Amino acid sequence: MTELNRIAVSCGGTGGHFYPGLSVARELNAGGGKALLVLGGKNAPKQAEIARGYGVETVRTPALPLSKNPWKFLRFLLAFLRGGILCIRVFREFRPQAVLCMGSFASLPAAFAAKALGIPLFLHDGNARLGKANKFLSRYAKALALSFPSPDGAHCKCPVIQTGMPLRQELLAGKMTKTEAISEINRRWNAGFLPDAPTLLVFGGSLGAASVNRSGRVAAGLPGGAAIQVIHLTGPGKMEELREYYAALPNRTLLLESSSDMHLFYSAADLIFCRAGGSTVSELAYFGKYAVVVPYPFAAENHQFDNARWLASSGGARILPDAECSPETFNEILRNFLENPGSYREASQKLAAIAIPDASRRILDMMVNIVSAARAGEGKCHA
């Protein structure tokens, strides 16, 4: 079997594209290979700094989002051409055996360069519903790796293979018992949490979510609600109101704007209330924690609903539409949780059946297998 020792991974754009791409790059590097991250978009400088911290080489390319505005479209086109030319020059020097694009407009220059140089192109989509960039690029790709079963996979012009969502190595290595997680949380934040108390985790993504922040609160009159320990990640600039709310309640709380220690919070939680981004639902499945997921209603083509449906199909999650997300509904769920904790634990165990913790390795294996088969076919033709 042919080994892929050098690949370029285009994963600029949001963290939902960057971190899975970085995980694949780190997996390759850990096995003795060499990966190059191609980063574009406004977050590229910070992403490059993060990647360098893990010893992953990067290159930044011009990239702007596609727009119907004539002036902005012209700027997009110029950035695309500049980025494509830069990628051709970089790829000629780096000599990748394959190029992997993780979706978004930022992948276009790298995909263009791969096509121009005859380098095998592969795609990955972090959501159940395929993104526009991946749908377009699929006509040039050898295969597209899916995080979840896709409702519109038939629109893809290349083979689709479910590999799962690549998760950060720190998350994968950080899974622990609830008692261990509570102990570490107490050590770091002096939270005073109890290992046997029901623990609720609430978060709305890196920027927070208004409906999740507003609804995901333990009501003052909830029977037994005072025993619930609350970990709530509010997003930047949104914590003061929540702090004032819980100041009048007896609940033990840990309120943070954000944190990179999600492995601790997942491990500590008995019930989770959150959005349904691709990475989030994959993490929920891996940690095996029952979740009430509120899909972001304005996500492109409502793709978070499809992500949530995959998670809920296991029986280990409940979908709560954003329009129905209210403090009353949430606390009714909490009431049921407090009255039937065993049923929630039993349901959460069903998530193991759909979790794919080795997605990074599966993506690399997919690329190796397809490139090897293509080269074997070329050899037969030449013979």
Descriptive report:
By secondary structure, this protein is of the alpha/beta class. The protein has two domains: 6-167 and 357-382, Glycogen Phosphorylase B (Rossmann fold, 3-Layer(aba) Sandwich), CATH 3.40.50; 170-353, Rossmann fold. The chain contains 15 helices and 13 strands. The chain has helices at residues 15-30, 44-53, 70-94, 108-117, 132-137, 169-173, 178-189, 210-215, 240-247, 262-268, 278-287, 303-312, 327-339, 341-348, 359-382, and strands at residues 6-10, 34-40, 57-61, 98-101, 121-125, 143-146, 160-162, 199-203, 229-233, 253-256, 271-274, 291-293, 317-319. The protein has a seven-stranded parallel β-sheet with strand order 3-2-1-4-5-6-7, sandwiched between helices. Helix 11 (278-287) runs parallel beside helix 12. The protein starts with 5 loop residues before the first strand and ends with a helix. The model has no long low-confidence stretch (mean pLDDT 93).
Which structural traits does this protein have?
383 residues, alpha/beta, Rossmann fold, 2 domains, 7-stranded parallel beta sheet, 6-stranded parallel beta sheet, 15 helices, 15% strand, elongated
